[in-house]
Structures are given as C-alpha cells and as structure tokens.
Amino acid sequence: MTAALAGAALLATACSPDGGGAPAPPASAPASASAPAASGAAEPPAPAKGSAEVTGTVATGLDTPWGVVVLAEGDLLVASRDTGRIVRVAAESGRTTRVGTVPGVSSGGEGGLLGLAVSRDFATDHLVYAYFTTASDNRIARMLYDPAKPAGEQLGAPDTILRGIPHGAIHNGGRIAFGPDGMLYAGTGESGDRGLAQDKASLGGKILRMTPDGEPVHGNPEADSVVYSYGHRNVQGLAWDSRGRLWASEFGQDTWDELNLIEPGKNYGWPVVEGLAHREGYADPIAQWHTDDSSPSGIAYADGSIWMASLRGARLWRIPLAGTKAAADPQPFLVGTYGRLRTVVADPDGGLLLTTSNTDGRGDPRKGDDRILRLRVT
Description:
The protein is an all-beta fold. Helix content is 1%, strand content 38%. The protein contains 1 helix and 26 strands. It has one helix spanning 122-125; strands spanning 12-13, 52-59, 65-70, 76-80, 85-89, 96-101, 113-118, 127-133, 138-144, 159-165, 176-178, 184-187, 206-210, 227-230, 235-240, 246-250, 256-262, 287-294, 296-302, 305-310, 316-322, 325-326, 331-333, 341-346, 352-356, 372-377. The strands form 6 sheets. Strands 19, 20, 21, 22 and 23 form a 5-stranded antiparallel β-sheet that branches. It has a 4-stranded antiparallel β-sheet with strand order 2-26-25-24, with no helix packed on it. A 4-stranded antiparallel β-sheet has the order 3-4-5-6, with no helix packed on it.
C-alpha cells in the first residue's frame, strides 16, 4: 500500500461501483442560517498513528443496515436498505424493535431506504428524516416517531420535503445529516448519468444544503437552489470536524476514491477529473485511494481524525487531520476481519459505532451478519 499527503500528493490505497449518517450535532452547536465557518486558533495536528479496537458487538442479525442514528439515551435507529424498515436497537441489550416501514421505498441495486437523521429538536418534535429511493426518484421525507405506539406502527405518514433527486440502479448517494448550522445536508449520486454531476440545475452528483423544511438556505451559492457543491460521482459519507468544516467521501470509478473537504460552490471534478488533478477550477481531494482498497461509505469525526468505512476494501481507514489537510498517510484497521463496512458514526462516549454490510448482495454473509460493532479509537 502506498499513500501520500494531499498537499504533498496524498496517495493511499480505496472504491468500487457500490453504494453510506453522521449523528445530529449536539443541541448546543450554533444554529445560524449561514454556511458553517471555522474560527479560532488552529488545533494541533492529530498524531500520525492511532488505534482502533473493537470492544463489543451492539447488535447482530440486521438486514442490509444503511443509515444509523444515535438517540440521546444511546439507543440506535437503523434503516434497512432492502426492506424499507427502521428498527430501534437497545444500547445495552442489542434487542431490536421494529419501528415501522417507510412507504414508497423501491429497493434494488444500490437504491432503497438509505440515510437517516433526526431533528435537532427531536426531544420535542420527534421527527425522523429519511433519504430513500422510490419508483420515480430519490427523495427526503420526515416522519413523526411515537415509541408509545405498538411495534411496527410507530412511524407517522411521510412528509416529503425534497423530491426529484435522480435515481438509478447505481449511484443514489443517500447520506443525510444535520450540520452545526442547523441545516440539513444530503449527499447525492449522478445515478449513472455522468453529465448530471456538472449540471447545476440537477440535484444529482451534488451535496445539498437545505432548511429542515427542505428549502434553500441563505448563504448557499445560489439563493434559489439547495445545491451546495457539485461535480460529485456518488457521495456516501458526510461529517464535520471540531471546527465545523464539512468532509465527504465518494466513490471514484476506475482509479481513485476520494475524501474531500467541502466548500460551498466548489466543483469537485467528476466526470472531468478523478482524484488529484491539480487543474484550475476543480477542487482536489485531501486524500485518495486506489479503488481496490476502499469503496468508501460512511465517515465520522473522532479524536482529531476522519474515520471512513470501506465496502470493497473491507477495512476502516483513519485519516489524521492537521486543519484542512491530512497530517499523515491514512491508516487501515480491521482489514478483512468483518467483511464489508458501511456506516460509521461517532458514539457519545468518544468512540465509534460501525456497521457491516455483508447482506447487501455483494458481500459474503457470516454467522450473525449484519452487525453493529463498538470501537475505542485514538
């Protein structure tokens, strides 16, 4: 494996044509309507080497888990891509309770019930947001969650806040998360139609930023558009670092997968460039991997680093940060130990929760799959 720094040519080894939520930020995070901005003194760079240790298994026997949300009390909401169901996983026992099924989900290929998020006011409004594929598009809807109702009947009717995201057998994107500014972000794919990524009028191949009601936000590059950045092939992970900077992972095609630092209005190159190109007008990734070694999915920020789950690469990558650059070469963990890895989210205790993805039709299921693992990281 080779790796290099993206400012000094960061190369490592990650993608495949396969299709990853970060939990909502704490309620104390700022909720201004403008785009997030980092401020204050620079934080020290993360150490070049870290560690990741699996300390336990939270749940087993999950069906195509995709989106994951950590609730305030520690329980999890988990989306099943292929069945359209949301289950609640008890943090202590791992017991699963069926919450309900999202109506209208059309599964197949890389589509289905994908990302989950909860409102920043979840304690009072009880709203769950879902990104999912239908017969005609990908869309984002919110539903009232009432755990007092019988199991399987706890979701209210979906209120669609954004529709018309292109859908296809591949590249449906799907990650959604609330940012430190209180706005909802979504990573989309170009659905296999490469030209959509450069078409600012299309919602495909973009990172979107919207109000909790699905409306464009003041501070977006174009006042009447939810498009925040463009030129993406298939965004699978979204996470913010300690300074409110947005990071995203996405699939490359034949050569390079990417970790990008996202800035409003920037063009991330697809399909004109893939990976580091040093071409005017296109934002270079902070890190890149050969497609055999990653196929990146969800990402999370913890202990000064971005942690990235990999599908085809079947490993967890640690990318230590030094501000807006990588502090050192990416470091792999769990290589091949648990198979394909889909979603990684920050645990309130400072660790990570990591899902496997071996029941998605492209993996080799093992006894107990799919599962959620708990990790201690440094």
